[in-house]
Amino acid sequence: MRNETLHAWVKKVAEHTKPDAVRWCDGSAMEARSIEDRMIADGELLRLNARVPHSFLHRTTPADGEDGDRLSVVCTKYEDDAGPTNDWMSPEDAERTVWPRFEGIMRGRTMYVVPYLLGPAHSSHNRFGVQITDSAYVAASLRIMTRVGQVALRQLGASPRFVKGLHSVGDRSPHRRFICHFPETKTIWSLGSEYAAHAILSKECHALRLASAEACEEGWMAEHMTIFGLTSPSGITRYMAAALPNGCGKTNLGMLTPTLPGWKVETVGDDIGWMHVGEDGRLWALNPLAGFFGVAPGTNQKTNRNVLAAIARDVLFTNTAVRADGSPWWEGLEPLADGEMLTDWRGRAWTQDSGQPAAHPNARFTVSARQCPTVGESFDAPNGVPISAILFGGRRTKVAPLVFETHDWAHGVYTGASLVSETKVAADGSGGILSNDPMAMLPFCGINLGEYLRHWLRIGGRLSRPPRIFHVNWFRTDADGKLLWPGFGDNIRVLEWILERTEGRGGAIQTPLGWMPTRSELNLEGLDIHPDRFDELMSVDARAWLDEAYRNEPFFHQFGPRWPERLEREHQALIERLRAA
Ligand code: GTP
Ligand code: MN
Ligand code: MN
């Protein structure tokens, strides 16, 4: 069946961008080989050694990827629909100023047309997109991150309902970079970057920014969340979803290796969750993606052995270093030999005396989720999994305790809306710069964030068995800047308490923030943590929280009448509880 909308669009783009060749991707293994061979010949990919079979390294230009969120604009008819936290451009202005920049941009290059499916095949919740790109690296990444080719085309049929993504690396100049999102016409234009979030348009651009707009209209949710299942030693399985800002532990949490005996984790997703209200009144979540695009630095046997197993073969690495034997390396992987010489992410000779990291701090691996030992059957479940708990959390060296439970859905939404994370550590070590990042969606919400929060409240009204909502923080430090909590696999101790709470068990004490476990309620067996340090980890300083609540006010009130009155009531109630404390 020929899709006329699709063919007309591809023709229009090809006439405008003038590639030397147009190549439709079918998703076959043969096609993958030929794209790889071509990239190796062009020097775009480096084949890694046989210790990681069929794996490659790609290096982006050094300045790429650092400022993308600032270059991202939402193009809606009315500026208010993009809201105060997004940069806005009118569709007419985009048409007039950005579209001409694509003229002739693919001359001398091949244009890849990649149809993709978001969500499991045969799910009524899945969505389609077609990305045009002149980067073979991006086409290869899309093949891993989504279900591409025939599987998508067959299900799309003749429907005009798909996202049109146009991407060109252009001249890679940081001064001519744009990412335009058009929620009203389901279109994305990205120019000048090869960095994944800006180039693999199916991910942040489609599965979050455009999907959040569509979801709000249609009554579902597109969230920046990892989704995972937890099976207790007694055999109870419950699913959870966690929204943590970029670089705050989603991938690690979704695949954790429990340090408590008898516990099992199942990974459903590591970055994005699409959620629906089920007929049973529960919230169901699925992973629209098919692959992981994870942070390499810090990944090792101890922190995440599941991901290490997943990336043992068939991986596309980006901006890692390479050892002399041709295997990839990054900070935190394993110690190097004395004086060992590496090639750093820029392709230069590097030793431990070089004074700079060998891998880019945001070096990544792109790998099929299927290769992860903790990925199971639920990964392809058409309706996803029922969510018992939602976790919000940021990187907080101060103030935020290890865990607390909110009172109900509205209080949970308020807590998510108040999410704050440290982005950078100040030079004097006095802690990080705090930024508001509601539901970890600030950079990814394609609509007015005030409207997005209203949507959360509306969804809650439709849930007869809503998940409980928690706040977590793995990053609190003592006065010397030392972490108070071991994190990673030991986070199972917090998850166990959360699971108990969702089952109506698990003791807790009331604090101004919500419900918190006492030391005896958390399973700390085998953990070497001094009672004083535990108390420090769990302490709630009412004064500091009050300051924080006041500091949040300008952020909340910038949404004007879109800031939900229900959340304002939660805000005032929190202030009262803190004052009384
Ligand atoms: P994005 O993919 O950018 O959205 O990041 P992410 O949320 O998936 O974060 P990821 O799991 O890749 O972790 C980011 C950083 O936080 C890494 O350096 C991890 O080592 C570190 N990290 C993750 N979990 C923990 C934890 O429980 N404790 C501590 N101390 N660090 C953690
Ligand atoms: Mn991640
Ligand atoms: Mn992310």
TrEMBL record:
One term of GO molecular function: phosphoenolpyruvate carboxykinase (GTP) activity
Keywords: Cytoplasm, Decarboxylase, Gluconeogenesis, GTP-binding, Lyase, Manganese, Metal-binding, Nucleotide-binding
Binding site for GTP: G247, C248, G249, K250, T251, N252, R364, R395, F488, G489, D490, N491
Cellular compartments annotated: Cytoplasm
EC number of the protein: 4.1.1.32
Pathway membership, UniProt: Carbohydrate biosynthesis; gluconeogenesis
Reaction(s) catalysed (UniProt annotation): oxaloacetate + GTP = phosphoenolpyruvate + GDP + CO2
Domain Phosphoenolpyruvate carboxykinase GTP-utilising N-terminal: 9-215
Major localization listed first in the record, in broad terms: cytoplasm
Binding locations of substrate: N362, A363, R364
Enzyme class name: lyase
Cofactor(s) annotated in UniProt: Mn(2+)
Residue ranges of domain Phosphoenolpyruvate carboxykinase C-terminal P-loop in the record: 220-576
Active-site residue list: C248
Biological role stated in the UniProt entry: Catalyzes the conversion of oxaloacetate (OAA) to phosphoenolpyruvate (PEP), the rate-limiting step in the metabolic pathway that produces glucose from lactate and other precursors derived from the citric acid cycle.
Subunit structure: Monomer.
Similarity-based family: Belongs to the phosphoenolpyruvate carboxykinase [GTP] family.
Name assigned to this protein: Phosphoenolpyruvate carboxykinase [GTP]
